[in-house]
Design brief:
- The protein is an all-alpha fold and 326 residues long.
- It has 15 helices and no strands.
- The longest helix has 36 residues.
- The termini are far apart.
- 40% of the residues are buried.
Length: 326
């Protein structure tokens, strides 16, 4: 009988402790909710974290409901702390809070809260990196923008600044990779960003081509164009620079093999005229190399040179046509 009494006493003590723990959790929950109401986000986060820690193993339904609700509120608390710190330019503190918000949301399976936290986090990195970018400290800008880009690939303004920073640091391929990712986004929603990315790709690719041309590296240009086409088989820019490189190497048969597809790929009248000029010039070179005897080559040269109707190649095409039709 004595032994039984000890067991019953122990069970009674456990029930008392459990009841006390449940009351403590509920009290903390009420404190957290009240703090949210007064926008005391740090106090709210601490109280609700205590709810989760103290009540997650409870068998009390009321306590478990408090835990579930606390998990929904906690990421919001850290988000608010993060945005408040960011407004004061306390970027490290803001990043810490927002990272914690995203981690908590992921831990508890709240995908929407995670996305929102990462969106805000990316904006903080965007502002922080923007200060370095505006000061032309592109190495620092890259280090910051990369973190923001990892948090939210859909922040296209920051992505474009990241690409620009790569280009400024002569990290051509990294810049191209970011621009290519932007170009793969929904065109109905990101049309302006896609247009800006394509403009950057054209500018810096032409700069890279000019650098390699100066070094006489036509094979490097061809390899670069092939890599671009492997990523985007419709790249008009890649088609054009590859054709020009083969023409510079005087591989005219290759120019004629690739020429028509390169011309069809162009969507800009000036760019297409440049391609027609390259093709016409290749036919003309073959005609001249054969002693000006092959009438078919001459006819083809004339045909393509007559298609040059816009841009910087017009005058050169006219001069070539004058020589061919004397």
């Amino acid at each position: 009988m004595k032994k039984l009494f000890v067991i019953v006493a122990a069970m009674f003590a456990f029930a008392t402790v459990s009841a006390q723990s449940s009351n403590e959790v509920i009290t903390k929950y009420n404190e957290g909710v009240a703090a949210i109401g007064t926008k005391e986000w740090s106090k709210a986060a601490a109280a609700l974290e205590a709810v989760v820690k103290g009540g997650m193993d409870s068998e009390d339904n009321q306590v478990l409901n408090c835990v579930t609700t606390a998990k929904k509120y906690i990421p919001t608390c850290y988000q608010r702390l993060g945005t408040s710190a960011a407004a004061k330019k306390q970027y490290d503190e803001a990043i810490s809070y927002l990272t914690k918000a995203a981690e908590k949301a992921e831990l508890w399976g709240d995908s929407q809260a995670k996305i929102k936290s990462n969106q805000i986090l990316a904006k903080v990195y965007q502002v922080q990196g923007g200060e370095a970018f505006n000061a032309e400290d592109y190495a620092t800008a890259v280090a910051v923008f990369e973190k923001g880009y990892a948090a939210n690939h859909r922040n296209t303004e920051m992505a474009l600044n990241l690409a620009e920073s790569y280009f400024k640091l002569n990290e051509y391929q990294k810049g191209m990779d970011v621009c290519t990712n932007i170009c793969g986004m929904n065109p109905s929603r990101y049309a302006d960003a896609i247009a800006a990315a394509k403009a950057k790709m054209a500018l810096y690719t032409n700069n890279e081509v000019a650098r390699m041309q100066q070094a006489g590296d036509q094979d490097g240009i061809i390899a670069m164009a092939d890599a671009m086409l492997a990523t985007d088989p419709t790249s008009a820019l890649a088609e054009k620079i590859r054709l020009q490189a083969y023409n510079n190497k005087k591989e005219y048969d290759k120019v004629l093999e690739l020429g028509d597809n390169a011309a069809l790929a162009q969507t800009d009248a000036e760019e297409q005229s440049d391609v027609y000029f390259i093709i016409g010039a290749a036919y003309n070179a073959k005609y001249n190399a054969g002693g000006n005897k092959d009438a078919a080559l001459k006819a083809k040269a004339v045909e393509y040179l007559q298609k040059v109707a816009a841009g910087n190649s017009v005058e050169a095409a006219k001069a070539a046509l004058t020589e061919l039709t004397k």
